[in-house]
Amino acid sequence: MAHPSQLGFQDAASPLMEELLHFHDHALMIIFLISTFVLYIIVVMISTTLTNKYVLDSQEIEIIWTVLPAVILILIALPSLRILYLMDEINDPHLTIKAVGHQWYWSYEYTDYEDLGFDSYMIPTQDLAPGQFRLLEADHRMVVPVESPIRVLITADDVLHSWAVPALGVKMDAVPGRLNQTAFITSRPGVFYGQCSEICGANHSFMPIVVEAVPLEHFENWSSLMLEDA
């Protein structure tokens, strides 16, 4: 999860987030090179009065400064489009979960099971156990198996919400009357935190999302216990 004075992204917990981090580094390096080159040109123009009359009207230079930016844009656009299509790929999900946004909590329904569903509320500050995070902990976590394709169907019951977990590279709007879907694969066990990323009202910042990735055997035990309690 994020920590104070952090400059970069959270550590990737899914293959998709790893791709997004690689693309970020790729684009940042291109921007850094362009900025350095422009700064160099500005310094040279300010610090010298030398002029080359052949540069004042040069078709070759005009062609270069037209074609080169187009090539740079292509080098950025192609990886971006690849990731964009990867984010929409949902092939043979092992588990489907429906997330419904309410004012101001989330409801989860495991649609592959008959009666497995629960509401997820933020734990108030006075009820937090030692080691738990303020404004991020929920009384019921969304438990998923590790290294399994998970499809999440996202909607809202009242106003616009947004289901977002940065470490998994997932962010999808929850719109009343509309069913959006996204997918992710957790590459390692852990607990990953997110929040509603849409300004949905007074308690907008009190809708934490907690995804707990566990081995498949532990997930089956958890689902059995939840069905027995239901």
What sequence of helices (H) and strands (E) makes up the elements? HHEEEEEEEEEEH
The total count of helices amounts to 3
Structural class: alpha+beta
How far is it from the N-terminal to the C-terminal residue, by CA? Answer: 32 Å
Uncertain runs are none
- Rg, nearest Å: 24 Å
Catalytic activity: 4 Fe(II)-[cytochrome c] + O2 + 8 H(+)(in) = 4 Fe(III)-[cytochrome c] + 2 H2O + 4 H(+)(out)
Transmembrane segments: 27-51, 63-85
Keywords: Copper, Electron transport, Magnesium, Membrane, Metal-binding, Mitochondrion, Mitochondrion inner membrane, Respiratory chain, Translocase, Transmembrane, Transmembrane helix, Transport
Main location: mitochondrion
Could you list some keywords that capture this structure?
230 residues, alpha+beta, 2 domains, five-stranded mixed beta sheet, three-stranded mixed beta sheet, 3 helices, transport
